[in-house]
Amino acid sequence: MNDTKEDDVPARETGDGRPKFGRLLIVLALAVMLIGALTLSAEALYS
Length: 47
Fold this sequence. Notes:
Blueprint: H1 2-12, H2 21-46
Keywords: Membrane, Transmembrane, Transmembrane helix
Transmembrane segments: 21-42
């Protein structure tokens, strides 16, 4: 059974070594939207 686990590891990797910029871009966009929403809500609350 250990042979199948070792065979699955290379199949999951992309092999090119490049980071996944699409996923990073989505996470950064969500973080910016969250900060923007917090800013707008704080401005509405305190003004």
